Amino acid sequence: MDMDSAEEIVIVGGGICGLPLALALHRKGLRSIILEKSETLRDTGPIGIRANGWRALDQLGVASELRHKAFTIPR
Ligand SMILES: Cc1cc2nc3c(=O)[nH]c(=O)nc-3n(C[C@H](O)[C@H](O)[C@H](O)COP(=O)(O)OP(=O)(O)OC[C@H]3O[C@@H](n4cnc5c(N)ncnc54)[C@H](O)[C@@H]3O)c2cc1C
Description:
The structure is a single chain. With 75 residues, the chain is α+β, with helices and mostly antiparallel strands. Helices cover 36% and strands 11% of the residues. The protein has 2 domains: 7-44, no CATH class; 47-75, no CATH class. It has helices spanning 18-27, 51-60, 63-69, and strands at 9-12, 32-35. It has a two-stranded parallel ribbon. Strand 1 (9-12), helix 1 and strand 2 (32-35) form a beta-alpha-beta unit. The radius of gyration is 15 Å and the shape is globular. The N and C termini lie far apart (45 Å). The chain binds flavin-adenine dinucleotide. Residues 12-18, 35-38, 47-48 line the site of flavin-adenine dinucleotide. InterPro entries: FAD-bd, FAD/NAD-bd_sf, MOase. Belongs to the 3-hydroxybenzoate 6-hydroxylase family. Keywords: Monooxygenase, Oxidoreductase. GO terms for molecular function: FAD binding; monooxygenase activity.
């Protein structure tokens, strides 16, 4: 399916799941639309990301940029 497809995928909520999902679909050439009830995207502060999360961010192609802003909490 290419970007000219008439099909649209509706994602309800532009949160931490909805936004990466839209990006992942875009990378696969699938159109989607995000419906977000808030007028602005919220920044709720720092978030802990574990290994699986980083793998997902790597696949989305955004991990390297985020690693520059992240810091590691010592065990
Ligand atoms: C205090 C706190 C700290 C946390 N810390 C971490 C952490 O360090 N690491 C971690 O991995 N997880 C953490 N979590 C959990 C993490 O925030 C959630 O797992 C994650 O936000 C879920 O993502 P989501 O996109 O499903 O929901 P959300 O991020 O809540 O996004 C949902 C979005 O949908 C919108 N929405 C809701 N209903 C509708 C509707 N009817 N129509 C349109 N839009 C709608 C909302 O406005 C919101 O923008 C934390 C949670 C809390 C509360």
